[in-house]
Amino acid sequence: MANKTAKTKHKSLASDIASSIQTKLSEAGEATKKMKKSIEKSADKLAKKLAKLMQKAEKKVAKPVKSSEKKLKKEASKAKKNAQKAEKNAKRTAKKAVALVSEAVDTATKAPAPKTTSRPARTQSTAAKPAAPKTTRPAAAKATNPVAAPVATPEENA
Known about the structure:
single chain; 69% helix
């Protein structure tokens, strides 16, 4: 259908161009048959080019409508994919949370009661320790032996 409309536009445009040129020529003088044919050929070529330009302009006008529809479709599909991803991630995190809770419950039930690491309090006996016997020091006597005998201290005796 587009071809028929394009052809009719082309023919009408060519005839308009040819008639306007011929009117200008007739004002200047009489045109020969050759001149008329060449004018019609030129008008035909020019009409083809103009028809192509008009079709391009029409397509450009129609393009923004198509591109906006494409953008809407793309955005809708992206939103759908994002929703699916979000749902999938939510399921994954829910599974992880359930696994952590069940693991914590398992470890709590399986683990034995914690042992106390504190020592029992020491009981101090009220009985007094026997006092260490007092030892007397031997008096320092003048010894003929140049090496003195070792003297025992109370700490050694104990």
